[in-house]
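Weekly puzzle thread! Below is a chain. First person to post its structure in token form gets bragging rights.
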Amino acid sequence: MIALILKRIVLGLLTLWLVATLVFLVSGSLPGDAAASLLGQDATPETLAALRAKMGLDQSELMRYLHWLGGIAHGDFGVSLVDGRPVTEVISTRLGNSLLLAGLSTLVAIPVSLVLGIASAMRPNSVFDRLTTFLSIIALSTPSFLIATVIVLVLSVWTGWFPALSSIDRVTSFGRLLHTMALPVIALSLSVIGQMARMTRAILLQQMNEPYVETAVLKGSTSLRATVFHALPNVAGPIVNASALSLNALISGVVFVEVIFAYPGLTKLMVDSVSNRDLPLMQACALIFCAGFLVLVLIADVIAILANPKLRSA
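Winning reply:
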């Protein structure tokens, strides 16, 4: 079991290195650079060359890659080419906002998904089950940017219940914070809820016809008690594993949600860095998102290994 976990960690680190290399190559192939973006079209070739030399953009691709990779190994992502501050300092001002958005979305998505999945498994093919399945498929098949746009249109433009822009910089109370972040949290949670609810239902349905569940019902247990206290503990590992994989949707969904709601998070920072051709900042943001995805996959793999009785006893 330990060998399998270590193997997953090594493969994760290797994948992260490959992703980092790809991020560097793709970002470096973008037209223009930060020097041209800062000086504008009226800059003379001499001024542009001097600023590029100051920023280190005149070095070869290989030298910049090795310098960047060596800095990452020591926790140094370089210096922002736009404002001259360390990339870690720039990111630290936005990372907390993105983690807050992901955390609130997780707190909403997981309980709702479990309740819907358990209720659907207890009454398969019922009206509730079919309605839940239908809505889950819609949430899964609809792009995140379209979900966010519809939510803004209905809950902000038509009803005026929530603000369309989720600027939390001037929020002074916790209640106001929740009100401001309601729309991005709802938009980010829907796709996760659809996927997790379907997975929970499918996993539980496989256990509902097992002899031990039927025996519990024959002994007088209610359907709810048999599901929660007998079937659910036996599939807790697979459900947690499925939940960890489902949460990867938060990483892809947050890209559109933060931009649409003008939320001051890491994605908005990355989009601005692409516009300004701020390569160190752009590369660091992309690498953080990739690392977050790989960490969730690694957690899911480890949970699957720990949930396997044969591997636990090995």
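Puzzle host: Confirmed. Bonus trivia for everyone else. The CA atoms of residues 3 and 9 lie 10 Å apart.
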